[in-house]
Design a protein that fits this description.
This protein has 314 residues and is of the alpha/beta class. The protein has 2 domains: 143 residues, 3-Layer(aba) Sandwich (Rossmann fold); 155 residues, Dihydrodipicolinate Reductase, domain 2 (2-Layer Sandwich). The chain contains 10 helices and 14 strands. A 7-stranded parallel beta sheet has the order 3-2-1-4-5-7-6, sandwiched between helices. Strands 9-10-8-11-14-13-12 form a 7-stranded mixed beta sheet. The protein is globular. It binds NADPH dihydro-nicotinamide-adenine-dinucleotide phosphate and N-acetyl-L-glutamyl 5-phosphate (X2W). N-acetyl-L-glutamyl 5-phosphate binds next to helix 7 and strand 10. It comes from Marinicauda pacifica.
Length: 314
């Protein structure tokens, strides 16, 4: 069994990772780092955790000294480098999967979105950067037709407030969100750059946060160089994702938040064309904490460790 450590374990994505790891025979959670919950049983947060496991407040050197087979970093942006450096010094073979945005633009890290960027480079990889939640949904919308586009793709995103993490802010304040929808970072959101970079295609992105806890929608507006037929538009997605266990299709209506929330996979559909066939709209719904974060991290980890990508996920 591969020995897995988790840093940022009491956070929203950490909680999901503990649950997903408990569903695998071939991976075992051997430490869970949290400063706020140090000393408490991990089962107090996640009943699925190993019974004997307690949260520990581990700094980067202490994490590296554990010598785990793999470490998942699930901390806010800006914290991962210290852990990556300490692990490079003390335990360079330890696989790191980082959920933050810190290495998504660093070519020496593998950007792990298997359904779009493949699985060929995972085997033996030790530095994996996990994509952002909107960036996952947006790329799933754009990738199958990117070669047909005449200009930037426009992605409208709405996510639940768990996307804003546990540090209090207006974006996870349930009073400010009640009966409300909050647009933010309307130009230059990190996921706008992330989608553009990894698709090799300009993306414009406008995120919004809503009063529900988890779930996310990306609606992509796509302008084509030449008119396309409904069959070709929809067919591009059916072909691209036909063999993907975690991508489902909704063919008769657009996917809604409820189609993605609490699901390990993503739902793609709602293909709609303008009358002249030059503009297409497609929707992806997924769970920001799952396919948008923890599920994808488990896929990446399993692929790097040469284990079954989908155990406990499908
Ligand atoms: N929420 C989401 O939908 C998604 C999140 N992500 C990314 O995943 C990462 C985790 O997100 P999320 O789970 O929402 O975050 P949370 O705010 O819910 O959790 C953050 C965790 O990090 C720990 N932490 C905070 N600061 C530090 C620090 N300086 N050193 C060590 N540990 C620290 C906290 O524990 P403690 O203070 O107890 O140590 C806490 O467990 C982020 O980078 C986020 O951008 C990616 C995709 C989707
Ligand atoms: C509602 C909300 O704030 N959502 C987050 C989602 C992004 C996220 O969590 O991912 P990374 O920071 O890892 O890219 C945001 O827009 O920043």
């Amino acid at each position: 069994m591969k020995r897995i450590g988790l840093v940022g374990a009491r956070g929203h994505t950490g909680r999901e990772l503990i649950r997903l790891l408990s569903r695998r025979e071939d991976m075992g959670l051997v430490f869970a780092s949290s400063r706020a919950m140090a000393g408490e049983s991990v089962t107090a947060l996640a009943s699925e955790a190993p019974r004997e496991l307690r949260f520990e407040a581990l700094d980067a050197e202490a994490v590296a000294a554990k010598g785990a087979d793999a470490v998942i970093l699930a901390m806010p942006n800006g914290e991962a480098a210290a852990y990556a450096d300490a692990i490079a010094q003390a335990a360079p073979g330890t696989v790191i999967v980082d959920l933050s945005a810190d290495f998504r633009f660093d070519a020496s890290w593998l950007y792990g979105l298997p359904e779009i960027h493949g699985r060929d480079r995972h085997r033996g990889a030790t530095r994996i950067s996990n994509p952002g939640c909107y960036a996952t949904a947006g790329q799933l919308c754009v990738a199958p037709v990117r070669h047909l586009l005449s200009g930037p793709a426009h992605v409208f995103g709405v996510s639940g407030y768990s996307g804003a993490g546990t540090t209090p802010s207006r974006k996870n304040d349930t009073e400010a969100l009640a009966d409300n929808l909050m647009p933010y970072a309307l130009a230059g959101h990190i996921h706008e750059r992330e989608m553009s970079r990894h698709l090799g295609q300009d993306v414009r992105f406008s995120p919004h946060v809503a009063a529900f806890f988890q779930g996310l929608i990306a609606t992509a507006q796509l302008e084509f160089r030449e008119p396309v037929t409904q069959e070709a538009f929809k067919g591009a997605y059916l072909d691209a994702y036909a063999d993907e266990a975690l991508i489902g299709f909704i063919e008769d209506r657009p996917p809604e938040i409820r189609d993605g929330a609490h699901s390990n996979g993503a739902s793609v559909g709602g293909w709609t064309l303008s009358e002249d066939g030059r503009r297409g709209v497609v929707v992806c719904a997924l769970d920001n904490l799952l396919k948008g974060a923890a599920v994808q991290a488990i896929q990446n980890l399993a692929l790097a460790l040469e284990l079954d990508e989908f155990e406990g996920l499908t």
